[in-house]
Amino acid sequence: MFIGKAQEKSSVFRTERRISEATGASYPWLVRSTAMVNQFYIYCMDQDFGPFFLKFGSYFPYTAKLCINGHEYVKQQLAKQNIKFEALDNGVLGCEEPKQLQEICDGLSAEKIDALLRKWLRLLPHPYTAEDREAGYRYQVSILQAEFSLTQVLDRPVTGRVFFEEVIRENLDIGRPSQVQLIFDQRVNKKTPGRFRTRVITNGVVPSLHVDYKNTRVKQYHKEGRALRTETTINNTRDFGIGKLLKNLPELRQVGFQANRRLLDVQKVSHDCSIGEDAFDKVVRPIEVDGQRAAALRFGDQRVQALFAVLVMFSLQMRGFTNQELRPLLAQLLGLDPANYPIGRMTYDLRRLRLHGIIQRIPHSHRYRLTHEGLRIALFFSRTYARLLRPKLADIMSNAPPVPTNLRLAFDHLTAAIDACCQEERLAA
Questions:
Q1: Residue 405: how many CB atoms within 10 A of its CB?
Q2: What residue numbers bound the domain in which 357 lies?
Q3: Which of 271, 262, 256, 261 is nearest to 167 (CA)?
Q4: Mean pLDDT, the chain, whole residue set
Q5: Is 89:77 a contact under the CB 8 Å cutoff?
Q6: Which of 35, 17, 37, 36 has the alpha carbon at shortest distance from 27?
Q7: Which phi and psi (to 5°) does residue 306 adopt?
Q8: On the chain, which terminus has fewer CB atoms closer than 10 Å, C or N?
């Protein structure tokens, strides 16, 4: 146990003097106010709930706050039952008995939380003495804030990050009233109070998606690079017509967990981004097939771009092509003498293309043909480089002629804004 003390601004009741209009006599009157009050933080370790803390106010009405973490409760119970599991920060990464894990999660009830409080109130000093408790002055637990989370562990974390970035890009309108009412199953109209919005907040290089509904927040992010985490935080139970007493926890739990699931149902992704990521990596990274290794086909490499451009020329030739037919065309694109282009270098490139699945050998011959996927990759890589990357980079480079294209103007505005910001903050450009 650890006890800390701090002064905080708190809501309190004060007594002020008032005068009766009928008798002229003075009398005390309670009014709500604020004051800097000593707060005592008591951090404890419970055998059932793990770490938690209690905070007591030292001024009337002696408010208190209990903060527990359901994931810590689950970890403590798993350890007590000797069930092997792998912990995730504020979660569970894996467990050998997933059904029992879910049963433990479902078993965290309002009665157990209340019992935890009563147990520690008997052990800890707090503002209400034994005489106060005998007179009926007791703490009653209400729900100030409740967070419900859904953690979906990914077996391919890097692909999961790419997927989540696509989710954010295509769901920036998720916070609009027409969308957010689907998440919470609540009708939203012009008279509905609160702010409805979507925010993308980036911490370092990790983005998170935030959706607001009245006093409730839904947050989604890529947790520790290994899981997709969805959290619904309810700051006012009355947003959903539910009372604040702890006995309403089951009803509130249903709202929170359904919101997490509905968010996933409402979200959309127009394509499977992992397919494109896999296809790109298969080409631009070194590969090993049946013990044979092949170097990468780098996207921006001049020789690779020349190879793809030449291959496209043979896409309609049913009889395929040979080393000898490909070599002079490739040499011309590279600015070399076709007569002196090494046969071994061409053989090396054909082997690379074959192991990467771009071409295949025609049986019982020394001829090759493009594969179905190889044609698509060769077309996309060569045309993207020639028609998009190269000309558009020429548009935005500072040493290029100042042609007023939309892309050039956008980058000029960005550079001017950054320079202006540096000048305002008196930073060196």
A1: 14
A2: 275-396
A3: 271
A4: 89
A5: no
A6: 17
A7: -65, -40
A8: C
